Amino acid sequence: MNEIIQNLSDIDTNALLFFNGIHSPFWDYFMSAFTGKVIWVPMYATILYVLLKNFHWKVAICYVVAIALTITFADQMCNSLIRPLVGRLRPSNPENPIADLVYIVNGKHGGGFGFPSCHAANSFGLAIFLVCLFRKRWLNIFIVLWALTNSYTRLYLGLHYPGDLIVGAIIGGFGGWMLYFIFHKLAVRLNLASKSSNIKMRQTEMIIYTGLLTTLGIIIYSIIQS
């Protein structure tokens, strides 16, 4: 078993060093900006707007609470429960033996432990919740690509191993599905939402447009800075 774990760790490290080694000034700025939380506030606000356009305000609040609990579940499972138990250092942590091999952007080494990734968990928690809720093909594609890119930024910045991201994404995705299932059943039981999953959702493309405009802004910023 120890040999299997060591082999998986070696594969994880080699994959990290490979992808982390692909860098340029443009991508340094792009990844640093994309990984931020504040820059995505317009998209989060648009999600709230779309919820209010498609559901009674009580249902919208119900789903907002569910999303908040999804993020809380993902964050606490990763940060408070699993990380202290596993104790795996971030690749960029100065105490990690491979730290000198990791490309660091803007001198940001991150915290101590990194397994699993809260960033990946939160991103995929939100993404899977929206996939279950809206069930719109193009929105599904966009939000999953957004979560993948958001997770990849942590690899590029040397803050997580690929394994950290994969496990974080699984935890977050499960949390998103679970909280959607619970709160949707609750809303139906309280006669606040329909049992049907075939309700036509309106203006969900606004989430895509806002996300793409934000990404375009990050691209322009990165071009100017580099």
From TrEMBL:
Which InterPro entries does UniProt cross-reference here?
PAP2/HPO, PAP2/HPO_sf
Q: Which domain of life is it from?
A: Bacteria
Q: Does the keyword Transcription apply?
A: no
Q: Which organism is it from?
A: Bacteroides faecichinchillae
Q: Which UniProt keywords apply?
A: Membrane, Transmembrane, Transmembrane helix
Q: Which PANTHER family match?
A: AT30094P (PTHR14969:SF13), SPHINGOSINE-1-PHOSPHATE PHOSPHOHYDROLASE (PTHR14969)
Q: What is this protein called?
A: Undecaprenyl-diphosphatase
The taxonomic lineage of its organism, from the top, reads: Bacteria, Pseudomonadati, Bacteroidota, Bacteroidia, Bacteroidales
Tell me the ranges covered by the Phosphatidic acid phosphatase type 2/haloperoxidase domain, including all copies. Answer: 63-180
Membrane-spanning intervals of the chain: 29-52, 59-82, 113-134, 141-159, 165-183, 204-224
